[in-house]
Amino acid sequence: xxxxxxxxxxxxxxxxxxxxxxxxxxxxxxxxxxxxxxxxxxxxxxxxxxxxxxxxxxxxxxxxxxxxxxxxxxxxxxxxxxxxxxxxxxxxxxxxxxxxxxxxxxxxxxxxxxxxxxxxxxxxxxxxxxxxxxxxxxxxxxxxxxxxxxxxxxxxxxxxxxxxxxxxxxxxxxxxxxxxxxxxxxxxxxxxxxxxxxxxxxxxxxxxxxxxxxxxxxxxxxxxxxxxxxxxxxxxxxxxxxxxxxxxxxxxxxxxxxxxxxxxxxxxxxxxxxxxxxxxxxxxxxxxxxxxxxxxxxxxxxxxxxxxxxxxxxxxxxxxxxxxxxxxxxxxxxxxxxxxxxxxxxxxxxxxxxxxx
Length: 357
Hints:
32% of the residues lie in helices and 30% in strands. It has helices spanning 2-28, 188-205, 227-240, 271-288, 301-305, 321-327, 330-354, and strands at 31-42, 48-57, 62-68, 74-80, 82-84, 100-106, 110-116, 126-131, 141-150, 166-171, 209-212, 245-252, 262-266, 292-297, 310-317. The chain has a six-stranded mixed β-sheet with strand order 11-10-12-15-13-14, sandwiched between helices. Helix 2 (188-205) crosses helix 7 (330-354) and helix 4 (271-288) runs antiparallel to helix 7 (330-354). The radius of gyration is 27 Å and the shape is elongated.
């Protein structure tokens, strides 16, 4: 009997040890945070913007979250049972919704995803879900953080057509600031002004009132201005004269001389900013035939601080030798000027429909 008792006791102890070892195994095989991706959608009618932050891990993880208002509004998502590898975190696709995101590693296989916001954050503005891995599509386990922001229609009223419209045109750079310099020696400030003056000529004939931030090669604010003073002076041309829209014309540049294509940037102050950018981008790509990089939100000073719908155009890359030759062609410049006017006209028509005019 005593032998059986000790045998059973040893067996129970061994089973207990085995169960402990099995339950402890997953803790040692923690998942790894392997990637961070963003996505963004905007509804031009309802004004609802959605920014999604997707955290990819090599295995399932659990999470907690809390909101803090110090030093600014933040959402902190704590991932449990995860190790952090070294990787780059791409910038936010829309800083008017999410300013930035960082990852802070803590002991015991815990990582904190810290998401910063430009303003207040309420519980009903965000949600967090997990998605299981899908071997068929080779999709890893994901923690998806979705933040919503509603941009309400402004009190601006639009009607179709160009006649009577007040349109601010800003040829980027100028004077002491040459902007980018092309591989073949072209200067951005000159290309910007050339296209802008042709846009003005077409708009004048259509009966619009055109406000030029500059009509020659000079600094808008004046000599020895800071960058901020110069940019502020350009936005004030539109704001002080109550322009209907503001358009800043630029040409792009990159250290990669193979980069090419057309881009339009906006800052979502009203529903109409993205509509203006889309109208201009579509018209320029259709007329010019350059690669369509797309419409992108940006925190550029002039589009953010112009009180009306605004867009900043990057017609093409003068850092690309082949594209630079195209951009310096007088025929191509005329095409783009006409396309910009077409985009402006299409915008006013669409904006009028949005307001039921």
